[in-house]
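Entry 14. Two folds queued back to back today. First construct below, sequence then structure tokens.
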Amino acid sequence: MKRALIVAATGGFLNGFLIPDMKLLQEMGYEVHCAANGNSVSTFVPEERFASIGVTFHQIDFSSTSPVSKESLTAYKQYKELLNRYHFDFVHVHTPIPGAIVRIATRRRRKEGCVVFYTTHGLTFPKGSSLKTKIIYGGVEWFCSWMTDGIITINKEDYAQMKKMACKNVYHINGVGVDTSRYHECQIDRDGYRESLGLSESDIAILEVGELSTRKNHKVIIEALSKINDKHYVFLICGKAMSNSGTYDFLKKYAEEKNVRVIFLGFRKDIPEINRCADIAVLPSLREGLGLAGIEALASGVPVVGSNVQGIKDYVIDGKTGYLCSPRDADAFADKIRLLSDKDARFSMRKACVEKAEEFRLDISHQQMKNIYKNLLREQEKVK
């Protein structure tokens, strides 16, 4: 039986986004393995979780912060040991740090027929990056692209960037997919649910869903709401703090200093219901692969005020499904939030929001991946 390996930085990423790809490869006749750093996972045991779907999990101590570190050297050695234990016919790696380690380590296996794919999930040198960032990170991607049979991007800007690389097969898909029906079919007692979240009937709920990290840029929304200076505006932050980042403490203190009402909801599983309680969604990220939280908001009929960066630009259409702002421009965010404070303005965008979200449905993404896998692997079989 042919053997496939799917690699990502964390066990949470594998579980949250890549199980459909694992099942697809199983349908194509592969024995599927996966590898990631599972040490940060607290909600499930990786070995047991993936074994339940017939997939073998391997622990690799990938660093989540730096490609040049002792952890990355350890991860490289662990991955090489994995390659020595198993012959893989197909390796698909996700996210930047594992993307570099795995492609470099697997380069010689390609001569033995191993096919190597890489999915970017947001390049680390987007438009507007410093020259230093472009040279370092762009250089790494260029070098690794020579060792890659297929590159998959999840936003249009990254697709254009990767088409300039050495890899001949570059594809664009609409992200990992969203089950949009969970959002636009969600029915709740809105007033009661809002009350359970600490919101009154007159409050304007500004929602951001995503982990508490510097990249998600919650700070600019607090600054924007301080400029609006109206206690009816409440910032709902839904997501867990990144370990040892100190982001929660910083944001809590900053909101108090700016006299802005912030409700930290932590990690939640009732995102469709919380979206129904929101009036406006915000996605002020400094960098994104796509930003599923924005698409989920649109699927709920909630307009998004987001950063004018890769990924977010693919579905936030200025004046139709929300508004775009420079990620560090608090005045612009304040102006757009004020515009959407009008209930009629939000309602006028509702249909366009739901329709745009449908372009990113789970079944569409799944079919795109299926076509890419089948086409490229078929071509590789011809070469053999």
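Second construct, same run, same settings:
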Amino acid sequence: MTIEKIRKDYELIDLFCNLAEVPSPSMHEEKVAEWIKNYCDKNEISCKLDDFGNVVINIPATDQTKAPMMLSAHMDVIGDDSPVKTYLDENDNIHAEGRTLGGDDKAGVANALLFAKELAHSDMKHGGLEVMFTRDEENNLSGIRNANLKNFNSKYVLVLDSDTLGQCEISGASYTLAKFKVHSFKGGHSGIDIGDKKRANAAKLIADLISDLPQGVFYEEDGHVVTSCNIGGISAGDIKVTNIINTDAQANYSIRSSSRKKEEELKSKMTLTVDEFNIKNKEIAKATVEFEEHLPPFEKVDDDYIPTIFEVAANKVGVKPDITSFHAGAETHIYANKTNANDEKFIPYLIGLATVCNMHSKNEYLEYKTILKGHELLTELFKEYNKQG
């Protein structure tokens, strides 16, 4: 079996390889966006680029009594703009020679793009399909952050960016930076002034503060981590200089939580720890903490309609469904905290329509049979969805 053979046999594999072979590092997606636009024009699919360069596709409803669905995937990949040459290994896995493949997330783009083409030329009665391919997901989600989501009518969004076939992820963790600072009122010389009890070393003081702060899992539910924190680094003086009683020190923590309530509980505990530190050390130092939210939580909702029909569709096509949560960030988090054209809050899910291994590395590969099965799953899921109404 060769890459040429499976590209000839399967339109989806050929589409994926064509997309993968257009380099698209973050904020340099213009060529792949142009490729997608040309593909849509050739296949008479309504397609445009928004003001930020995201690609937007719309397949109009053929049955106004049904609700539309939205698919989302990102065009950028980890890697540079060097050429991409795909090949098939002895285990039927697709690689790129000497670099990242870009299966994250060209697999999602390919699946959505082919499905849009098929739907546009089918006689199926449906409520419409909205598709967005975003820029710069890997860097700081600027594509989805700058998209005008008020232009979309769908309530349910399938973000096709999970790395395992059959996954339907119903919640994901926020990312908040907690910045702790300690200022000692009096520093000095580590020899001459060391006996002065009113001189305190900020490095020692922040170590004391850290020892009282939580670390690791803060809250879990049903075996899944919901809320956690992790110390990322400590700064105090110059590691090469030991003759100074340091006056300033800092420690940065990451907070991740798929529950806004539990995150606030953790932040309150951290703030209380700082308050207690300040009472204990009021004569010699002061500590502060600041919280910076970089990504809001993607919280689980009571509406289980999509997970329910996802399981039905997966079982029909012979895929094992895995309804789960993930303790990291994705575009789902932005959708979950925004509203559509009808002022309804989006309900997103992170969906796996292919298995991509060793993502973001030169050893990345796509198990090609999984993307074919994923397309069956997407098609069946859309059919189940349009049984409504």
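Quick look at the second one. The chain has a mean pLDDT of 96. The chain has ten helices and 19 strands.
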